Amino acid sequence: QKEVEQDPGPLSVPEGAIVSLNCTYSNSAFQYFMWYRQYSRKGPELLMYTYSSGNKEDGRFTAQVDKSSKYISLFIRDSQPSDSATYLCAMSVVGGFKTIFGAGTRLFVKA
Amino acid sequence: DADVTQTPRNRITKTGKRIMLECSQTKGHDRMYWYRQDPGLGLRLIYYSFDVKDINKGEISDGYSVSRQAQAKFSLSLESAIPNQTALYFCATSVGQGSNEQFFGPGTRLTVL
Known about the structure:
The complex is a heterodimer. Chain A is mainly beta.
């Protein structure tokens, strides 16, 4: 079993839709939960991160962590064609040197 | 200006050839990483280095070697390339604190025929 599981998609939505991206994990020691966005032919870039449980909001993006269920989510409100990319969840432990990445979910937002 | 650069961006080679991928960074970070990305498998760590004298194997280091020539330079070598090493390769750096946010280069697309 992989430490981090993520549905690869693809996920196709119309412009303006609310998008929900999810990951599950097995290592209860993870404390940092991150979402990276990767455009085609580019390297991943950190979109946002959350420490421990709870929600974090940044503009149209909300990251949610449920440690009891070992489940994290990224919500995108009012999705735009420019949001079309691959979204990778990632996790690490406090003081850790390794970040474990999910396989990535490919998102298409249609105008 | 790119903070993490990789050369070459694309490379096609033949089975058995030696190939080197290079990474340079201007972020001043001590930690550097090499990952490969395959469809459905995500990013997998090949090697990582905390400083010039500290190099460590990742989860899939077999068939690869690295060299940390300076704080800013970290090279990945395939001594004898094989077709299942066809992948997208990324170099990354990090400060190594907090979330250990990684800053990625643009990637090298390697095809081994």
